[in-house]
From TrEMBL, chain B:
GO-annotated molecular function: ATP binding
Domain spans labelled ABC transporter: 4-229
UniProt keyword annotation of ATP-binding present: yes
Lineage start: Bacteria, Bacillati, Bacillota, Bacilli, Bacillales
UniProt keyword list: ATP-binding, Nucleotide-binding
PROSITE patterns: ABC_TRANSPORTER_2 (PS50893)
Annotated source species: Alkalibacillus salilacus
Pfam families: ABC_tran
Protein name per its UniProtKB record: ABC-2 type transport system ATP-binding protein
Length: 126, 293
């Protein structure tokens, strides 16, 4: 669950775990979000760290507060997460992929063929 | 004003300064780790906060009072340490009863359940316990008293790894149920990483740093690569040769853009564990062991 060898701070990992819960439909729009204390217990971490994870989701408008009741998943949370992951995570991976392909002199055709193979679940046998 | 504040505190034993000009305020309602090599002044600092010893100079304030022989501090602050004494003819059950009378928030159920979990019989005499069990008993009492401030000096000394893990979990759950100000001194920062909100690093009786654990984890990065002029010499905290070509550096975090640039120049970048970082920071004050030979 938590990776201590990652460059990502624990609170970012908590935020991403929550995002995955939304992506996987385990938490739906307008469902109540975990509290910082539930997360602290679940992940065995200081509640302040868990709280920062929740704050990150609030800042990204993925959840909203109801006074005295806690936080709830926004309407558009899932779409926003998909959009953000495409722009950030996926784009970073693509940049790295292209960089490595350039190092290795892999042509566009070969690169695309490899991606196609990977999507089909096989390995490239060029 | 925070519950615990120190202003320009110095503590001298004979000719030795154990604490030098220390000014800090402990964040209320949080778990703070007190870290530093042997002789850094950790126990002295806790003794001063607990009012067991008086500062030679400066002010120690706990709930706005000088803690030395102060009744309100004694009732609201509990100090768990190795030399805790219990009445010689008391069984553990009687020790618990005595705490129940003195501390209004004493959680008898928690004390009994934790004792049961850790295989400490209430019929035993505290003095008959092994070193590890004695630490466990002290730790249980520290959790069950539920004073607004609780200080733990090396609470896990002598405990097995499994017992330590359970103690950390119990501390976290107890804190979640009743948020309060907790300070833990420890050698084992790696085990405490996720538990702590703040870290105080002492060295030679002085404050080396005090920051949030999350920030401490981002304070430095490890780099592996060949010698490169890209590294700002001023920011190097530690370096070590990996092999003929490769070197390992620990540098202050240079910002995400610079990290990206370093990555593109072939450096491998890794996080630095807070426990290691604390060793590097205090080692810089004395040089590594190789200098002895």
């Amino acid at each position: 669950m938590l990776n201590h060898k990652s460059m990502k701070p624990i609170y970012v990992q908590i935020a991403e775990w929550l995002e995955n819960e939304i992506l996987n439909h385990r938490i739906q729009a307008h469902d109540k979000m975990y509290s910082q204390y539930q997360l602290a217990e679940l992940f065995n971490i200081n509640p302040a760290t868990a709280g920062k994870g929740i704050t990150k989701l609030l800042d990204d408008d993925l959840i909203y507060k109801k006074r005295g009741l806690g936080t709830f998943v926004s309407d558009e949370a899932r779409l926003r997460i998909i959009q953000k992951r495409k722009e950030e995570t996926l784009q970073t991976l693509i940049d790295e992929l292209v960089l490595e392909a350039d190092y290795l002199n892999v042509s566009d055709d070969e690169l695309i063929e490899r991606i196609n193979q990977a999507r089909k679940g096989g390995s490239y046998d060029g | 004003m925070a519950e615990i504040e120190l202003s320009d505190v110095m503590k001298r034993y004979r000719n030795q300064e154990a604490i030098s000009s220390l000014t800090l305020s402990i964040p209320d309602q949080s778990i703070t780790g007190l870290i530093g090599p042997n002789g850094a002044g950790k126990t002295t600092l806790l003794n001063l906060m607990a009012g067991i010893e008086a500062a030679t100079e400066g002010d120690v304030s706990v709930f706005g009072n000088e803690p030395l022989e102060n009744l309100s501090v004694a009732a609201n602050l509990f100090y768990v340490h190795e030399d805790m004494m219990y009445p010689q003819d008391f069984r553990i059950s009687e020790v618990y009863q005595a705490f129940k009378k003195v501390y209004p928030n004493w959680d008898q159920a928690l004390a009994e359940n934790l004792s049961d979990h850790f295989n400490i019989s209430l019929k035993q005499m505290p003095m008959d316990l092994s070193k590890g069990q004695a630490s466990t008993l002290n730790a249980i009492i520290g959790l069950a008293v539920q004073t607004p401030v609780t200080l733990f000096d090396e609470p896990t000394t002598g405990m097995d790894y499994g017992v330590r893990k359970d103690f950390y979990r119990a501390l976290l759950k107890s804190y979640i149920a009743h948020p309060r100000t907790i300070i833990l001194s420890s050698h084992l920062l790696n085990e405490l990483e996720d538990l702590l909100e703040h870290v105080i690093l002492l060295d030679h009786g002085e404050l080396e740093l005090m920051m949030e654990m999350d920030k401490l984890k981002q304070y430095a990065v490890g780099l592996v690569g060949e010698y490169d002029s890209m590294i700002d010499q001023q920011t190097i905290l530690y370096q070590d040769r990996m092999d003929l070509n490769q070197q390992y550096w620990v540098i202050k975090h240079p910002g995400e853009d610079m990290l990206q640039e370093l990555r593109q120049h072939g450096f491998t970048i890794s996080p630095v564990a807070p426990a290691d970082l604390c060793v590097y920071l205090t080692q810089m004050n004395r040089g590594d062991v190789d200098h002895v030979f």
